[in-house]
Design brief:
By secondary structure, this protein is an alpha/beta fold. It has one domain. It is built from four helices and five strands. It has a three-stranded parallel beta sheet, with no helix packed on it. Helix 3 packs antiparallel against helix 4. It comes from marine sediment metagenome.
Length: 162
């Protein structure tokens, strides 16, 4: 059964083997994380990404029914700043986003609630962040236990705010 997953290129977290691609990604840069946009390409927000994921997985018919070309789904990791759930109004917006993701045909949504400044501090003071888990792609890892290159890639991911 077809699906869209890309965990293997993370094993060893070494992007030095990747070549440049026509979309402007430089040689040695990480590939996209499963069905996610490549780092820096997520410029129109989480709803736009969700719409793209739904279309890539099959989209909808004119009658509004979802078509699923990938029955095993696709791994989609997205990072939000914890500030998005800091008040009741934002919580409702976040719930609406999650409902929309499913209604749009999304399958495996993996959410990081991370602040880039906190991650940079964890790089400087790992002893203070021994229990900080991050979603890498198809797996979680302790942030301070992964290599610097992968840490920097996680920091570079867009952290959506409300």
């Amino acid at each position: 059964r077809p699906g869209m997953l890309s965990w293997n290129y993370w094993a060893g977290a070494d992007a030095s083997y990747t070549i440049a691609t026509p979309n402007g990604r430089n040689k040695g840069s990480f590939l996209s994380n499963a069905i996610c946009p490549t780092d820096g390409a997520d410029m129109k927000g989480p709803t736009a990404v969700t719409n793209s994921v739904g279309k890539a997985l099959g989209g909808k018919t004119e009658s509004g029914e979802y078509i699923n070309y990938l029955p095993n789904g696709a791994s989609h990791t997205i990072t939000f700043n914890p500030s998005i759930i800091n008040n009741p109004e934002n919580k409702e917006k976040f719930k609406a986003y999650l409902r929309g993701y499913i209604e749009n045909g999304g399958t495996a949504l993996q959410i990081n609630m991370l602040d880039a400044e906190m991650l940079r501090d964890a790089q400087k003071h790992p002893e203070n962040y021994k229990n900080l888990l991050v979603r890498v792609t198809g797996y979680n890892a302790y942030f301070t236990a992964i290599g610097r290159e992968l840490q920097n890639e996680i920091i570079a991911r867009e952290s959506h705010k409300m």
